[in-house]
Amino acid sequence: MTNKKISLQQESRITILTLLKNFYDNEVFISLIREIYNANESISLAAIEASASLGNEIVIPHLYKIIEKGSPKQTIACIKALAEIKAPSTIERLLEYYNFFREDSIQLEILKALNTIDTQHNKIIELNKQVIQNAIAGEVSIDNDRKIFAAQALVDSEEFRFLQLYLPTLSQKVFEAVFLKVLDSGSEKVPDFLWFFRKEVGRFSPSTLGCYLAAYQATSRNPQQSFVIEKLKGSDRRTLISFLLSIGKYGERISQPLQVFRTLLIIPYMNQKTEAVTGDSLEKLIVNAGKSSGFHVSEMAMMTRTHLDSILLKVKRNYLSRKNQEDKETLLMIIFAHLLENYGTIKLVNEVKRFFKSNNASEINAASIIDTIKKHCQNAGDEEQKILKACFPFFLLTDTTARLKLLGCLKNINLMRPFLIKRLNRLIRVAGVLGMKSSIKKVLDVLDFAREERIAFLVETCVVTLCQLYHRSTVEQAERFLQNPETPVFRGYIRGAAFMDPGFIFNSMLNLLSRPILDLRHREIIIHSIEQMNQGMLKNNQGRLLTLIGMPQIPDSIKKRIGELIISHPDASLFTLLLDFTYHTDECVKLISLRGIREIIISKEKVPLDLLVNRLYILLDDESNTLKKEVILTLMSLKDDYAIQVLKNYLAENEDQLVAEIIGDLDGPFSHDIITLVLSLIWEENNIIQKALRIIMGKLITNGYGEEIRKKLLEYLKPGTEAPHILEKQGDQSDNIIGHAKKEYKFKRENNQLVTVLFIDMVGYTEKSSDTDSISLMNLIGRFEEIVIPLIIEYKGVIIKKMGDGILAIFKNPLNAAFAALTIQNNIKKNNTFTVIKEKFQARIGLNTGEVIRKDNDVYGDVVNVASRMETAANPGDILITQSTYDEIKEYIQCTQLGNINVKGKKKAITAYVVQKVITDTSHILKKGKRNLEKYVKQDSKNPLTILKESMFTPDFSLPEDCGENRIVLSHISTMMQEITKFSEEMTHDYYDEYAFKRYIQEKWDTLLDMLQEKEE
Question: How far is 203 from 201, CA to CA, in rounded Å?
């Protein structure tokens, strides 16, 4: 095939330029310079970006030219490139450009570039100050982004006095950006700078105030704790969120962790979202403190213990207790008061009190109050909503005693108590993270209180903490409480399981996951706990985890997470089960199985390749592109030689999205064939594929193929380069027999063929071998083979293997296989008619038709396995066949349906038939001469009789008597033709292609002989 001369198109050229940024040498730099001047702006931009490498100073003069004469996009790209090159020599020129260009976007990029090169340079500092001063003066229009960047750059250069003077006149956004930058500064001047702005906090926006308080708290040497708490309490939710997020960004660099910890411990509860962030921030502080200072951890524990005692005391004080309340009406009154306490406001509570205090309830609109209560309680849970409805009849009470009793409950409402309980919950969580075993008794007290008062979230947190502290009694009761998923204790245990001994709880967690009635939320908590467990436990129980993915009750999202656990510890012992799961009807299960198999291969564990490759190629027939992608990736991890061809075929069929996904997800080990393919794909002008190439090439460059890729990329940029022929789109060759044969030749390792598999086995061989001498036994086997083998060969079968008392053979034509089987059974009966008892034997035969993988004179696949099962299930003297074989032979051979039989390895029963006798005389076909060469007709127009004729066709390459001086040459050609014919029997897909190929070879031979004869005449 000749190569096409084509030009390198836009996306291909952009890919090459993008990848060249991975290389740092003059040859690459010079190639990039040429492309910087490309008339195509997109290509020029890619070249400019690729040139942005530290130290690439030879490109600087060219970047100047583009800045001055190029488009705005090119100008900005060049400025960004100068920032990455970081050459001090460019500072003066960039300063000139700042005054020359007036566009906001270009001035911003120049400002960023200058500060990236050297934020301490005097002229750059002056420029930053100038930006701020001009913004304040209003003489020059300065966009907000430039003001923010200049102000943050001045923090880096420690120009705090200037900022103190000018910052108050700027916007809140600039203030906020400066305070966030201060958190990263590390300058000793920061505390004084922040102290200066304490008097300004009254004019800060909520978000700016949160950033300021975070910076003040985290960097000040001795911050006023009351000041921070007071400001957080007096502000809205946005301030608290801003404070928490700013602390989170500061991370491990907090210089005063105890101060920040104390603040986080006592800040007010705002809502569930802010509480979650608060808890996460506390946990990070504890973990970081544990890495650097045991003293800090001890101090944190002491603070937590003190606050725990204090908050619990405040919560219990005058608490509306449900404990020992047996009267239903009284209990409902208390619950009603709790609902108002949790969801009400001062105004609402006072209105309700006034209603029940009034002697004339008709003066107050009860319906209006009820509507208001409903609105306030709209975020309550379903259970609480039901209870609330049961409380509304209180507004119809006329009994004075009952009304006064309810009023007494309402008087004890404390709207701050729910927030205290939330803080108590926070402290319990912190006690667990700190490992405060000395606080177990206090946590147990809180648990008892929470159970008695039915505070579900507090019960859950206490159980988690007790598991975290490994309280023996709590842990030992796990099995009992894990039986009821509806309780908060259950949720506590499944969360707490992450901290328990996996050997004790692991099996229970797996059993829970398999429960059909469990909801998704609980399953997610369980799988999260399993993910946190000891890795050794996960590794030793992968088999049990794997069985879960086949359960229909488990959602795909959970199956995928289980799959990740399995993949994290690839184990060859799982291979068989993973392979079995590739037969599952659920696509998610198949995908998990394939990924697990691939990880086993990548980890260089040994697996039965023949069985695996067979299954993979069968899966390629699936309609799902997602599944096809996983199959190809798995084949490539095996370095399968035909997988690359399949990928090329997808490309030829315009399956661009599929090809791009496969290329983008490729992972090591990488074969050289993959490198060749990926490099050749650069010529594909397809955005999807090009984006995938830019991802995969980075992996290839870092995996030892850098120099080869570099040379190819530079070569492709040269004018007149020819595209590799690998990417030429090929037309439909389905009718081209020789083209098809060549394609099949590439399939020589895993050759897919449509055949009928025949298994035959001597009945009772084991019993005979135990009471028959060796010589007689060998004679018996010899007689068995004398009958069977010649008939298989006569009917164009191929002996695959002999197994002592059994034989495995294949036939391209099911009719041939059936005729051979019937003849074998008839001849065995004849043999038994004239032999003594010890020399008599019977055989069972099984047939199945379908596609197999043929390799190294062996066959593999499900079709082979089912044929073997048919032979095992057959009665002595019978031939048992499957539905697929029956459909092919039913017009010429009488069969009786046996019914459905269960076959090992198959979930569904298989319909089986017993072969009886031939109902159409075909002896004239079977006895015809070898030169049965008829006009070739298409496959879909053939009937079984025609197929039988074709299957019996054997090419004749015999030499004519009067060859003369051509005899030696013709003899060699005849031998070659015979070898090609034999090769076609092994490699062609089915009996249609085999006949067509043999017919083609026969015609060529006949034509050659005719030409020689004409020449002689």
Answer: 5
